[in-house]
Fold this protein.
Amino acid sequence: MTTGTASTATDVQDTFPKRLAVLARTRAGQPAYREKEYGIWQSYDWAHVAREVGLLAAGLADLGFRRADRLVVVGDNRPRLYWSMCAAQSLGGVPVPVYQDSVADELAYVVEHAGARFALAENQEQVDKLLEIQKKVPSLETIMYVDPRGMRHYQGLPSWVEVQERGAKRLAAEPDVVSSEVAKGHGSDDAIMLYTSGTTGRPKGAVLSYDNLVWAAEAGAAFDGLRAGDELLSYLPMAWVGDHIFSYAQGYVVGLVVNCPESASTVMTDLREIGPTYYFAPPRVLENLITQVTIRMEDAGLLKRRMFQYFMGLARRVGPSLLDGRPVSAVDRLLYALGNLLVYGPLKNTLGMSRVRVAYTAGEAVGPEIFNFYRALGVNMKQLYGQTEASVFVTIHPNGEVFPDTVGKPVSSVELRIAESGEVLYRSPGVFKEYFRNPEATNDTKTPDGWVHTGDAGYLDERGHLRIIDRAKDVGKLNDGTLFAPKFLENKLKFFPHINEAVAFGHGRDFVAVFVNIDMTAVGDWAERRNIAYASYQELAARPEVYDLIEGEIEQVNRDLAGDPRMSGAQIRRFLILHKALEADDGELTRTNKVRRGFIGERYKPLVDALYDGSASAHIKVDVTFEDGRKGTIEGDVAVRDVAPQSALRKAS
Amino acid sequence: MSSRSRVFTETLLSVENISLSFGGVKALTDISFDIRKGEIRAIIGPSGAGKSSMLNCINGFYHPQQGAITYKGVRRSQMRSHEAAEQGIARTFQNIALFKGMSTLDNIMTGRNLRMKTGLFWQALHLGPAQREEIEHRKVVEEIIDFLEIQHIRKVPVGRLPYGLQKRVELGRALAAQPELLLLDEPMAGMNIEEKQDMCRFILDVNDEFGTTICLIEHDMGVVMDISDRVVVLDYGKKIGDGVPDEIKSNQAVIDAYLGVSH
């Protein structure tokens, strides 16, 4: 990028390419991205990023990429893929990152709907998918790729290097081919299109402008005092709005350092090596970490186990108070310091959280026990409530006001309103422009004066914090009028390390019943310790011992519910353990791993019926899609069990 | 997937009239075939047909009593194993032969052993040339780790890995020698379908990316017919078939050997 000629245009830093030109001067030698190559972390500074982006943009221009063209970007989190987004934006184009594990059909829909002529794939796997799509969606003209491995025999697809070589030639002939386009950009332009995973129906492409993203990046950074040089590990899908704000927008706005893991399976190692200061994890990841820690502690020696139990007990009692700056006795402070030396410090180091200043979790409601585990260790874990349509930020826990049962207070310039139906509405400078080519959905979601329907039911409590109960459309009633909030119950179940996923039924029924998905790692380990033999997931799930285990856990949940008069009637009366894990590939979960309750209810109708007709077991046969796209069926008998309702006998100490 | 039709002309290795016996047991009788540069050559046959013995002759572990082996134009009556290694022949074993207590990285590093040039003195000091050399070797090894997608087990002791991954590490160690001819002894034995698919892809990729000639023994007929260019079939130490997969499929002697026939 020829920064000299672009200086007048970059006075107003309202787009990312303009910001990049400035960063390339002001933070030229500061690291912007890091990536492991052959096992060693490589840093790329801002000057390098500007060079790469400039060359790629010129190459894209040479390939015929025009203003308003869409660039589909598909792959794992890689610096080059992030750079390609800025290259597309430099030319006035709109990048469309796509979930890298989407099957070809899902991807085809997005490519066609976005009207993309260009796509950049990380590797051969993604290229193959795109080539498949190209047969059905001829509007996709150019497929480019980054990683040359296995690409030797693919004819006519330009590689990253080739595009940049073209760019170098073009820049030599026409030095301002990119900078003149950068100068034409405005804050109100479309910056990115993110397809929402959609718990119902086809995904919708939310269009966000530069103004939306820059506001979100600044507001988020101001809320928690992020500063240039803060480190972040980018391991969540690039197509997800959170990653786009944290790893992309805040990179350009705040100057965060974006670290890309080597591969999905090395994330834990990479976390430990990088030691991020700014961390985001969906509840699922946080749960998995606790599951792993729990399993490994069971394997530890007696001394270590005792020490862990004692100090974790202490931490749960005083850790959150210390974080929030509430008074704690001198003895407890001393003991906590000792615990930090012996347990919390090493544990945080193993989890890669030693340097974390602020950590967010969002996406699904998180169990208070999970949440407090991290706060007890001294990790400043907060909940964040947000949406793609809001450029993420709606509410966050302010420092010192972290309550596990709320999602925090509105971020500056965000207005909240609760509709009569109980639905939460918000308005902010981050509110999306529109759903691409879908004015109907846009009108349904966004009112003319800029309020957005979240679809979540919730209320503001006396502290001014927002509490979310459930999806507005999911909150139902049992036949006796008791409030039934399925997600609330499911989350309570999911806290148990043995339960990976749960699906609750009850709306319009006499009582609540659930499907349970066991966690293969945790239950497998549990079974091994008890010499319970099993050959497959299906067999393990059907073991009566496993049913006993889960029944005990459901009783605990019921006991918990019994203590809350509003929820006491919604105790779980019957359950079954599903014979297969719920999968996004089968459409049972969304790509962000939320359960699609309605779909599951229909797909497993015989099982739902068995929950309510009193039978002791049911036969089920379902079609499944394997990872490579082949189809098959899984069938078997699934047992159903009754659970005794609990009464609130004693209050837990 | 159908078999691939590629044409190779240059002979890399040929065995002529090889016979091998252990005492009175004739393991191989008068076997001749060739391996051409760049191809994937499979050796198949029922258990005890002499497949592993054949590989052992090629890399000099066994010494046949009769016959000759011509490798890269040099005709020898016997291969010596260190010669074979120096001349660019690497192999993996039917039963994994890794250092169980060492990490993946260190195991693959051992594959570079032959190419380490600095003396014991510098190696012990780990200074100057020895350090530079180690960095060079480490780079090659890291490329292989990247290639085989085993970054996540880089530092894990091999003994703790599942079988399929151990097989992959063993392939990595063979690749570390940057061989011209890679001998794979049942690379997919004992694997599940997914692991087999992965292994097939790696074998094809090695052949494709590095141009390595591959000679493999395999029992899974589906795999053999899919990935190999030519197949040689042994039965009771004798060669009963040689050709492209389609020919082998329709060869009556081969069918009889596999299905059994009344004599």
Observations:
- The longest helix of chain B spans residues 128-147.
- The first strand of chain B starts at residue 11 and ends at 22.
- Chain B has a mean pLDDT of 87.
